[in-house]
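#struct-pred
JK: can someone run the complex with guanosine-5',3'-tetraphosphate? inputs below
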Amino acid sequence: MSHSNFLQEIMRRRTFAIISHPDAGKTTITEKMLSLRQQNIYIYDKGKKHDTKSQIKSDWMQIEKQRGISITTSVIQFLYRGIIINLLDTPGHNDFSEDTYRTLTAVDCCLLVIDATKGIESRTRQLIKVTRLRNTPIITFMNKLDREIYDPIKLLDLVENELKITCVPITWPISYGKEFKGVYHLYNDETYLYTSKHYKEILEDMYVVKGLYNPKLDKVIGIDLAKELRNTIAIMKGVLPDFDKNMFLNGKITPVFFGSAMCNFGVNHVLDSFIPWAPIPLPRNTKTRTVESKENKFTGFIFKIQANMDLKHRDRIAFMRVVSGIYNKGMKLYQVRTGKNIIVSDALIFMASNRFQITKAYPGDIIGLHNHGTIQIGDTFTQGENLQFINIPNFAPELFRRVLLCNPFNQKKLVKGLIQLSEEGAIQVFRPLNTNAIIIGAIGILQFEVVIVRLKTEYNIDIIYESVSISAIRWIECNDVKKFIEFKNKNESNLALDANCNLAYIAPTMVNLSLIQERYPDVIFRNISDH
Ligand code: G4P
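RT: done, structure tokens with the ligand placed:
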């Protein structure tokens, strides 16, 4: 492939995540986006087509269905107006912030969905905090306009005050709830009318009125609403800043759209603006240099591992963000951490729960590699260069349980299952050096329940938990070999190995942790094992 064709492939890719509080409408928007997509992207292997509407629900795991929440991050690729969009769904529940954090390292932009009947909710605040750490560009969609919502001006105020980002409305709603008439697009000077047709998702027939002062507008939305709209827009144009792409790309302003995902109204407005505005695949930093997407040599990093995605396949998939170069089926990739080369001939892309083998992938794409226990979150793959992408952390867990088997003969199977689940990064497994206990640690309480269900359904193991008096676990290291040996000898009963055999210190109390840190100043105690 010529360099200019390669650059074109980069230019036509966008990679983003949808973030929201649970129930704001993330899944519905994803479904509607997929219903708007063009079919069949050329990079699939011949004969392996994706495509039925029943496959598009992205909340795919059994447990998610039971609980009605997204637990894991789903990855979906689709084509819209000639642009290949890689969409990452993020878990909506509070407990899964770590997985979400890592997912956000793999995207270049976020779509924030707000339930306009509820305003800013707790989870939205947390997610925005994470995106603000990297100034990720954010597009905002105010959803559920077919219901009684907060006053739109109040919604913008809430976003500005609580999320500390300036709002620039791109569309503006004309009433809401039963009276919802549609939205006015401030930059296209067009009104898109909301009709019952949207329930049938017939976008071609969408009724457009050109020009804010077009008398037709008075006829279709009524004289009073038309007058009110003109006044509001005139005031807004006087006080609000214009949309500025650079300020958006630097995370300083967020363009705001209004609509109803359920009625498929407004989702296309977002996508249509997203294409020219959202960044093309961005560079990523390594410990030694910045890698640009247009570099010829392939590089990528693993941000997520998912075990047993498909019980029929019983395998583990490592999700990789391609940073530079081209993945070609059958190519040799260098796994920097292990120093080994692997031949990759079966990389996958995903369409909700369906997977398709691909022959090529480009910067911005998210591909799945089959993992036989050798790939870890944070791993960098290159074509030989010693690079390590940074900022893909493993946070120290804050909650701990001891795992007890209902059938003690399953010990080996249990360890295997737990280590596989821990590779996904949602829980961490620790084995104390001087007992047979197995401790699992998590950031959120729901993970413990998820482990019980998944061990049962995926490994046929029954477990129960016992509480343990652990307040914190810290990964430890020391440059002074003699001092480290002395530390280890004195504190053996507090030492454990994690799933990757890294040594960790188990602190029964936070006071104990402070004392031990004071007593051994040469030992480094880390609460993040950063890659
Ligand atoms: P999530 O992924 O962010 O958690 O939210 P999801 O899309 O599952 O939507 C949560 C609920 O809100 C769903 O209702 C969904 O139908 C509804 N919803 C989404 N968008 C809109 C909208 O624009 N208007 C209205 N009125 N409702 C919307 P549910 O009853 O929980 O589930 P379902 O039975 O409808 O699937």
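RT: quick notes.
The chain has three domains: 16-78+88-277, 284-382, 399-526.
The CA atoms of residues 478 and 485 lie 9 Å apart.
JK: thanks, will look after standup
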